[in-house]
Amino acid sequence: MNKASIKITVLTLVISMIAQTLVAQLTPQEAAAIKQTNPLVMPWNTPYQTPPFDKIKTQDYYPAILYALDEAKKDINNIITNKQAPTFENTIVALDRAGGLLNRVLGVFFNINEANTSDELQQIAQDITPALTKYSNDLNMNEDLFKRVKAVYDDRDDIPLTAEDRMLLDKTYNGFIKNGALLKGKDKDAFRKVSEELSLTTLKFQQNSLNDQNAYHLLITNKKDLSGLPQYAIDAAQQAAKDGKKKGYLFSLDAPSYIPFMTYSDNRELRKQMWIAYNSVGNNNNENDNKENVIKISDFRLRLAQLLGYTSFAEYSLTDKMAQTPQIVETFIDDLLKAAMPFAKKDLKMVTDYAHSKGFEGELQRWDFSYWQEKLKVEKYAINSEMVKPYLMLDNVKKGIFLLADTLYGLEFKENKTISKYNDDVLVYEVWDKKKNKFMAIIYLDFFPRPSKRSGAWMTSFREQSVVNGEDIRPLIQMVCNFTKPTKKEPSLLTFEELETFLHEFGHCLHGILSECKYQGTSGTNVYRDFVELPSQIMENFATKKEFLDLFAVNYKTNEKMPQSLIDKIKNSEQYMEGYACVRQLFFGTLDMAWNNITKPITKPVEEIEREASQKAELLPEVKGTMMSTQFGHIFSGGYAAGYYGYKWAEVLDADAFSLFEEKGIFNKKVAESFRKNILSKGGKKHPMELYKAFRGHAPTNEAFLKRSGFIKEK
Length: 715
Description:
- By secondary structure, this protein is of the alpha+beta class.
- 55% of the residues lie in helices and 6% in strands.
- The strands form three sheets. Strands 3-4-5-9-6 form a five-stranded mixed β-sheet. It has a two-stranded antiparallel ribbon with strand order 1-2. A two-stranded antiparallel sheet has the order 7-8.
- α3 packs antiparallel against α4 (88-97), α15 crosses α16 (366-381) and α20 crosses α26 (646-664).
């Protein structure tokens, strides 16, 4: 055992000892010491009250959470013991603001645990989860507190409330109901126990997925096995090998490594090996196996829903989504499948026929599709990623997206190198409204993969926007991606898909940055889950627009603008494989509902359930031993349970919404101002359909989406 291992072991023991005291009350002396010395708890005398990452150490989290939990309990107790009659201000608003310090501490901890984790942080997360779940249950099941909330809710029609007030009141009341406030006796005890188990299992699922993904690497030592791979992928693999103190070329399951390998590698056997590894994450019968966790999570959710009187978790979850019922979701998915499947089958046949024409024999397998469809795309449209990447240098893309935000919404981004950050890769910017000369937000941009970061891309915040005592508290936004890292030979160059990802996540950021709400519970992205993707997905529409690309897309070597001929090729290929891609996305939505719309405990193996669910959206041969469920973080640990359909739901919204930009001009100030005023700034002030109609003038239709996808012809 080396010194590093000894240090970790000792720290873990200390953490575990502290964990045993989490539910205990701190002594006044302990609380005073934490308040005076812990950087997470002390006042943040930093620019814009940003987290002092340069001062925060791993061992600070536990004491800070202990202290913040006690403070949160005091906040709740003050509401309960208030001798004045319940009012909107002293009960509902007070609840929205209660636990402010706890929100601050956990906002840092959990975001860092996802973007820059360690063994110690993962252990802390495991240890604190029961205490945090207990706190949440104690709050939601407190009869005296709920009596006050209910009293305000019962008088709602007789109280002068704004639309935002009413949304917060409804959300608060329904939140109590959906978290067991009406349960009694054994049912209440059962809800507590199951919710605690669910929280722990969800966290374990997430940690297993990250650990299992990091455990796999493909080391190539024979240069012949690099055939077909673009130079940037080879250079990155060579650098990864050097970083890992290995000789050769190291490929991982991180998207910037995995995707180019599956798209370009001529070595079919190695593609197969990589594909199987990627699609076996959490399903390797080792310490990171997630099959049992998948079943537990689904059964726990079912149990919670049925304790509250719902037949399934999907029925429970959809009560506060636009779709409202599982039946509406199922119909939505089936209708889109019906429209997309004929085109998906044509896509598959076209790729298969092409592969056969080039000498490929037999049935196309899953590790073949990306490879052959890319070659067909090159031949059909004379375009590939390598032609586009030189024009998408990350630094230029970032500047271009900032310019887009300026052009649409008058925002300016100023880098601030004095604000401390949690990793050297992170960039920090102040965001200003130029017209109002108003500070709007801080945004942390975290672009590159590392073993301590989970896969994918996401936006979140260390602090959400709200107004407290007349002061507009501006948000601290975090955007996390896994883009191709720069090498010694060239800068970070994005694929077209990575450009779309940047635009997508930045759209979520704008939703947070431009929030002009009063309450945390209604601000920014605190909207219905199937509405939250509208601000993000509408941004992807700009990716193929010449006016936008002309802002930044220049060759990093020659400084020449992306030629019109290349832009035309991108536009001409927009609908390429759209049927296949749509069915693939609907497969995820179908699988989500299969796990979350169950009405009885699961008795079948995970693999069998996935196979049964996927049949109506399946196009390629089954590969036994692989599955999506054991790594499907969106629905098992990411908040999209019974809501993954929302991506396609929001595509219908964004296509309809963007058609107005196309009609009036993609940089049209009036349209942009209307989108900001009615969608981005409003957060969850009103029902999303009301917000959408205020912007668009009518309810959304699917015509624009079907046209954009090529499923119906333009009139």
